[in-house]
Design goal:
The structure holds two protein chains of two kinds.
Chain A: E1 2-6, E2 9-11, E3 17-18, E4 24-25, E5 31-33, H1 35-51, E6 54-60, H2 66-75, E7 79-83, H3 93-111, E8 115-119, H4 130-138, E9 142-152, E10 156-162, E11 166-173, E12 176-180, H5 192-198, E13 204-206, E14 227-232, E15 241-244, H6 247-260
Parallel strand pairs in A: 1-6, 1-8, 6-7, 7-13, 8-12, 9-12
Antiparallel strand pairs in A: 2-5, 3-4, 9-10, 10-11
Chain B: E1 4-6, H1 16-20, E2 26-29, E3 32-35, H2 44-48, E4 54-56, E5 72-76, E6 78-79, E7 82-83, H3 86-100, E8 105-111, H4 118-123, E9 128-133, H5 142-156, E10 160-164, H6 167-179, E11 184-188, E12 190-193, E13 199-205, E14 210-215, E15 222-226, E16 243-247, E17 259-265, E18 277-281, H7 291-301, E19 304-307, H8 309-313, E20 334-338, H9 344-347, E21 355-360, H10 367-370, E22 373-376, H11 379-404
Parallel strand pairs in B: 5-8, 5-10, 8-9, 9-16, 10-15, 11-15, 18-19, 18-20, 20-21, 21-22
Antiparallel strand pairs in B: 1-4, 2-3, 6-7, 12-13, 13-14
Classes of the chains: A alpha/beta, B alpha/beta.
The structure holds flavin-adenine dinucleotide and adenosine monophosphate (AMP).
Flavin-adenine dinucleotide sits between chains B (207, 282-284, 308-310, 322-327, 339-341, 343, 345-346, 349, 359-362, 365, 378-380) and A (13-14, 123).
C-alpha cells in the first residue's frame, strides 16, 4: 500500500505570547509537528504494518520544516519530501492545498498512491480545510474527522467518522483521502534506534521547477484568493464590576445580582 | 520571487522587521534583508519598518466583474430532515449583510423529502429558498453535496456564501471553494461587508492569541464558515414573503466512490451549546469530588456544567463539555466560572455570553478582562454560601407563596 501523509510544522502554541502591539513574541517558541499529524502518521504506519507498502511524508514550508520529517523518520516513515520555494510563500488554504496536491502527484508518479492522510486541523490558525481541498484538487473522495479505521484491505477502507450527533461509517475504494481526529490511534514515541539509523537519510526537496504546473500565478500569494488585511490583538470593550471581600459578602452580592437579573 | 520589494539602498539593516515578523520569515542574507518561504504576506513588516523601505509588490491579477455576483447564500444544514440551528444564525448574519449592500438573502437546502422545512426558513426571513429534493442527497455525502452546491452557485451567482463551521460545513465548504478556486475563511467570528460587496472576515489566529481580518477581493463567490453560537439567530418576520425555488442536478452527476454504509445516533449527551445557564469549572477545583458542589449550583440555577481543557485531561469531565477554541462555543444568558484563569483559548469559546460571573482568588487572572462581574475570592468560600442563599431564598419564596394562599 502506498500511503502519503501530510505533516506540518507549527509553533508550539502552548507557549505563544503576544506583546502589547499584538505581535507574536517568537523568541523561545519551539516548533513542533502539528499534534493531529502525529495521529495521521501513526494511522499510516499501522496500515503499512498490516498490508505492507510505503509511508511517505510530505510537508510544505521553509527549509527548517525539515525537522518534522526527521521526526517522522524517527517514528518509522520510509520517505520524506519538503516542498519549499520562495514562490510558495504567502499561500492561503487554496494555494497550500494546490501546492501540496502538485507535490503529491510528483511523489505518486512512480507507484501511484492509495491513501492520503492528513490531520483533522492544524493548531496555528487554519482550520481543517487543507485536507478536503487537496482531495478536491486531486478529484478523489475524502472523509473528514475519521475517528476509527473499521476495516482495511489493499483495495478499500471502511472508516468511522464523528459527525457530532451521529457516527457514520463510510467505505471507499482507493485512491482517497482521510483526515483523522485524536481518537483514531495512539501515536508511538520517536525511537532512538530509528533516530540513529535515519540520521543521514535523505529528505528530498521539491521546488516550483519540480512540479507539473509551470504557471507561477497558481502558487504562493499570487495563487491565494484570500489576503490578510490586518492582524490585531483581541479587543475588549465591556462594562465590568469587580468585587472583593469575605466569602459571605461576595456570595451576598452575587445572590442579589442574580436576583436582579431575574435568574433566580 | 518575494511578495515585497525592498529598497536596499535606504535599508539600514536595523532588524525591526525581523523581530516583528510573526512567522520568522525574514532573514539577512549577504547583508540584505530577504523574505523566505515562511512569509505569509501579512504586512506587519511594512508597518514596522521605520524607514519605509519595504513595499508590497503590486498585485496585478484579474478581478472578476463583481456586479455579476449578487446576494447572500446560506447553506441550510439538515440532518434527517431537521434543520441545524446554526442555519438560523447564518441567516441572521446573512440578512444583516444583505441589507447593507441592498441585496437579497437566499438559502439553499439539500436533502430528500424536505420540502416541509422551507416554511420555517421563509418564516425567518429568507427571500428565496433553493431546494434540491433528491434521493441521492438524503444523507450528507460530501462530493454529492458539493456538486449540488456547485449547481446552485452556477445558476444563482451569489456574492457571498455562508456555511456553518460544523463537521458537515467544514468538510463541504473547502471542497466547494476549491471547485470555484475561490477564497474561504474558516471560523469567522465577525463579518461585515463593504459597499463593493467585499466581505470583511475576522477570525482568531494562532490559537486565539491574535485576530486577523481577511478579504477575498478578486474572486467570487466569497465563502466563510461561522461557528455555532457565535452570532444572533435570525428573528421571525411578520409577513414572510420568500419563495421556494425547486432545482435539481442530473442524476449522472451525483456519483462517488464513497458510500455511507451505516449511521448511528450517538447516545444523547448534555449539549452545553444549547444550555441557557452554565457553571464552568477549571483547575481551581482541588479534587474531583468538588465537582459535586459545582453541580449543585448548576442544578439550583437550572444550568449545565462546562469545563476547561485541563479537567478533561485529568478525566474529571467529558469532551462534550469543553468550552473553547478546541471545544464548543457557547453564548448562554449566564455563565459562572469557578477557578478558571481565562486563557485565550477558553475565552474564545465563551466571550459572547450575556452575563459572565467569574470567581477566582487571583485578582490578576485574565478571566477578569472578560467578566462582567469579577468576584475576587476563594470559590470554596463563596460557592457554598451562595448555594445556601439560593436554597434559603427558595424556602422563603415557598413560604410567601403558601402565606399568600
Ligand atoms: C491550541 C490550544 C487550544 C486550546 N483549547 C482550549 C479550549 O478549547 N478550552 C480550554 O479550556 N482550554 C484550551 N486550551 C488550554 C488553555 O490554554 C489553558 O491551559 C486552560 O484553559 C486553563 O484552564 P484552567 O483555567 O482551568 O486552569 P488554570 O489556568 O490553571 O487556572 C486555574 C485558576 O483557578 C484559580 N484558583 C485556584 N484556586 C482557586 C480557589 N480556591 N478559588 C478561586 N480560584 C482559584 C487560579 O487563580 C487560576 O487562575 C488550549 C490550549 C492550546 C495550546
Ligand atoms: N504546509 C503544510 N504542509 C503539509 N501538510 C499540511 C500543511 N498545511 C496543512 N497540512 C495538512 O492539512 C491538515 C489540516 O490543516 P489545516 O487546514 O491548516 O487546519 C494538517 O493536519 C496537515 O495534515
Amino acid at each position: 500500500m502506498e500511503i502519503l501523509v501530510c505533516i506540518k510544522q507549527v509553533p508550539d502554541t502552548k507557549n505563544v505570547e503576544v506583546d502589547e502591539n499584538g505581535n507574536l513574541i517568537r523568541d523561545g517558541v519551539d516548533s513542533i509537528m502539528n499534534p493531529y499529524d502525529l495521529y495521521a502518521l501513526e494511522t499510516a504506519l499501522q496500515l503499512k504494518e498490516e498490508h505492507g507498502g510505503t509511508v511517505t511524508v510530505i510537508t510544505m514550508g521553509p527549509p527548517q520544516a525539515k525537522e518534522v520529517i526527521r521526526e517522522a523518520y524517527m517514528m518509522g516513515a520510509d520517505k520524506g519530501y519538503i516542498l519549499s520555494d520562495i514562490k510558495f510563500a504567502g499561500a492561503d488554504v487554496l494555494a497550500t492545498s494546490y501546492t501540496l496536491a502538485q507535490g503529491l502527484e510528483v511523489i505518486g508518479l512512480k507507484n501511484g498512491y492509495d491513501l492520503i492522510i492528513c490531520g483533522m486541523e492544524s493548531t496555528d490558525g487554519d482550520t481543517a480545510q487543507v485536507g478536503p481541498s487537496i482531495a478536491e484538487t486531486l478529484g478523489i473522495p475524502h472523509v473528514a474527522y475519521v475517528s476509527s479505521i473499521e476495516e482495511s484491505t489493499v483495495e478499500k477502507i471502511v472508516v468511522e467518522k464523528d459527525m457530532g450527533d451521529t457516527i457514520e461509517v463510510v467505505e471507499f475504494s482507493y485512491p482517497g483521502l482521510i483526515t483523522v481526529t485524536k481518537h483514531v490511534s495512539q501515536p508511538r514515541l520517536p525511537s532512538y534506534k530509528l533516530k540513529l539509523e535515519t540520521e543521514d537519510k535523505e529528505i528530498k526537496t521539491l521546488t516550483f521547477d519540480d512540479l507539473a504546473d509551470d504557471d507561477e500565478t497558481n502558487f504562493g500569494l499570487k495563487g491565494s484568493p484570500t489576503q490578510v488585511e490586518r492582524v490585531f490583538p483581541p479587543e475588549d470593550d465591556i462594562e465590568q464590576v469587580v468585587w472583593d471581600g469575605s466569602g459571605e459578602e461576595l456570595a451576598d452580592k452575587m445572590y442579589n445580582e442574580l436576583k436582579e437579573l431575574k435568574i433566580i | 520571487m518575494s511578495n515585497y520589494s525592498i529598497d536596499y539602498v535606504n535599508c539600514n539593516l536595523c532588524g525591526k522587521c525581523m523581530d516583528a515578523c510573526p512567522f520568522d520569515a525574514i532573514e539577512i542574507v549577504d547583508e540584505k534583508v530577504e523574505m523566505n518561504a515562511a512569509c505569509k504576506a501579512c504586512g506587519i513588516c511594512v508597518d514596522e519598518c521605520q524607514k519605509g523601505v519595504i513595499e508590497p509588490i503590486k498585485d496585478e491579477r484579474e478581478v472578476v466583474n463583481k456586479d455579476e455576483w449578487q446576494d447572500v447564500l446560506v447553506f441550510a444544514e439538515q440532518l434527517e430532515g431537521e434543520i441545524h440551528p446554526v442555519t438560523y444564525e447564518l441567516m441572521g448574519k446573512g440578512r444583516e449583510l444583505a441589507n447593507k449592500i441592498d441585496q437579497e438573502l437566499h438559502v439553499v437546502l439539500l436533502g430528500h423529502n424536505i420540502t416541509d422545512q422551507t416554511d420555517e426558513i421563509i418564516a425567518h426571513g429568507a427571500d428565496k429558498v433553493y431546494v434540491y429534493d433528491q434521493e441521492e442527497l438524503h444523507h450528507f455525502n460530501v462530493e454529492l453535496y458539493a456538486t449540488a452546491i456547485e449547481d446552485c452557485v452556477n445558476r444563482t451567482q451569489p456574492a457571498i456564501i455562508l456555511v456553518g463551521a460544523t463537521s458537515i460545513g467544514r468538510s463541504l465548504a473547502p471542497r466547494v471553494a476549491t471547485r470555484f478556486r475561490t477564497g474561504l475563511t474558516a471560523d469567522c467570528t465577525v463579518l461585515d461587508v463593504r459597499e463593493n460587496t467585499d466581505l470583511v472576515q475576522t477570525r482568531p489566529a494562532f490559537g486565539g492569541n491574535i485576530m486577523a481580518t481577511i478579504l477575498t477581493t478578486r474572486n467570487r463567490p466569497q465563502m466563510a464558515t461561522m461557528r455555532y453560537k457565535v452570532m444572533e439567530p435570525a428573528k421571525r418576520v411578520e409577513d414572510p414573503t420568500g419563495e421556494v425555488v425547486e432545482f435539481s442536478v442530473a442524476e449522472e452527476k451525483l456519483k462517488t466512490r464513497a458510500n455511507i454504509i451505516d449511521i448511528t445516533k450517538k447516545p444523547e449527551v448534555e449539549s452545553i451549546e444549547d444550555a441557557n445557564i452554565i457553571v464552568a469549572v477549571g483547575r481551581g477545583l482541588r479534587e474531583e469530588k468538588d465537582l459535586e458542589m459545582a453541580r449543585e449550583l448548576a442544578d439550583l440555577l437550572g444550568g449545565k456544567i462546562g469545563t476547561t481543557r485541563p479537567l478533561i485531561e485529568k478525566g474529571w469531565t467529558d469532551h462534550q463539555q469543553q468550552i473553547g477554541l478546541s471545544g464548543r462555543s457557547v453564548r448562554p444568558e449566564l455563565i459562572i466560572t469557578l477557578g478558571i484563569s481565562g486563557a485565550v483559548q477558553f475565552v474564545a469559546g465563551m466571550q459572547n455570553s450575556e452575563n459572565i460571573f467569574a470567581i477566582n482568588n487571583d485578582p490578576e487572572a485574565n478571566i477578569f478582562d472578560v467578566a462582567h462581574y469579577g468576584i475576587v475570592g476563594d470559590l470554596y468560600e463563596v460557592v457554598p454560601q451562595l448555594i445556601e442563599k439560593i436554597k434559603n431564598g427558595e424556602e422563603i419564596f415557598k413560604e410567601q407563596v403558601a402565606a399568600a394562599k
